[in-house]
Amino acid sequence: MKKISTYLSICLLIAVTSCSSDDDRPQGYFPTTIEKIDFTNSGNNRTIELEYNNQNQISRVEIINPSGNNTIKTLTYTDNKLTQTVTTNSGDSETRNYIYNASGILSSIVEIDGGSTLTYPVTYDETTNSYTLVDGADNFSFFLNSQGNAVRYENTFFADLILTLDNNLSGTFKFLEPQIAYQFEFALFSGMDFYYMSTQQINRFEFGVQDLEPIHTRNQNDMISTVIYNLTSGGGFQYTFTYSNRNL
């Protein structure tokens, strides 16, 4: 009985210490819901729900559309790098494998869709801190700043997209560790609904004739709660963000 009592006392001490340790850990806010409203076309409205793993990496994304034609992405990591995404929509499934070289630099993306497999080479330019995906005669490039956030997007078909980031104000993904694979998966393959996964506030978009300064509001935790941008051609969008507080 004494041994059991001693054992229970030790277990209780460990539990209390563990709880205290968890309470003392630094915490950060991660987006869990993104609501998009299109001012002119409600068919473009959507809700995006995000889940995270124990390393605070995005593990699951569901894009809920008004039509009910929802998209689900599941993300898998190896050595803290995104290595695979599986996207399902209307019963169809598409897999992307992110391949890294021995130095941990993204070198290719392998896309498996139905019975076809496509491999896209990715090159990294250390001088410009940029990654370029090659798709036949077409190129798609991401230029990053020193914090790993995208500041310029280039491609063969459209005008360059240039972002001006704020060096003092945080972005919607302030506590998410940047990964170049996120840029390819969410910015290139999924569009701007993820607000470019930036840890810094985006103060300006320059895209052809569009030169936009988004309007930001912040909540009581100093996290961005809404982003509004009005297109020069008319219309615009609003994004509303909901966060969860997680241990870092």
Distance from N terminus to C terminus (CA atoms, Å) equals 40 Å
**Biggest beta-sheet profile:** 17 strands, antiparallel
Percent range of helical residues: 10-25%
Form type: globular
Fraction of residues in β-strands: over 45%
Average pLDDT value?
A: 88
Give the class from helix and strand content and strand pairing: mainly beta
Rounded Rg: 21 Å
Give me the count of strands.
17
Which consecutive residue ranges, at least 5 long each, have pLDDT under 50? Answer: 1-20
N to C succession of SSEs: HEEEEEEEEEEEEHEEEEE
> Given the structure, what is the number of helices?
2
Question: Would you mind describing this structure in some detail?
Answer:
The protein has 248 residues and is mainly beta. The chain contains two helices and 17 strands. The protein has helices at residues 2-24, 180-188; strands spanning 27-38, 46-52, 58-64, 71-78, 81-89, 92-100, 106-113, 116-125, 130-135, 138-144, 150-155, 161-170, 200-207, 210-212, 215-218, 224-230, 236-247. It has a 17-stranded antiparallel beta sheet, with helices on one face. The radius of gyration is 21 Å and the shape is globular. The model is unreliable at 1-20 (pLDDT under 50).
Short description:
With 248 residues, this protein is mainly beta.
Chain-wise SSE layout:
Layout: H1 2-24, E1 27-38, E2 46-52, E3 58-64, E4 71-78, E5 81-89, E6 92-100, E7 106-113, E8 116-125, E9 130-135, E10 138-144, E11 150-155, E12 161-170, H2 180-188, E13 200-207, E14 210-212, E15 215-218, E16 224-230, E17 236-247
Antiparallel strand pairs: 1-2, 1-17, 2-3, 3-4, 4-5, 5-6, 6-7, 7-8, 8-9, 9-10, 10-11, 11-12, 12-13, 13-14, 15-16, 16-17
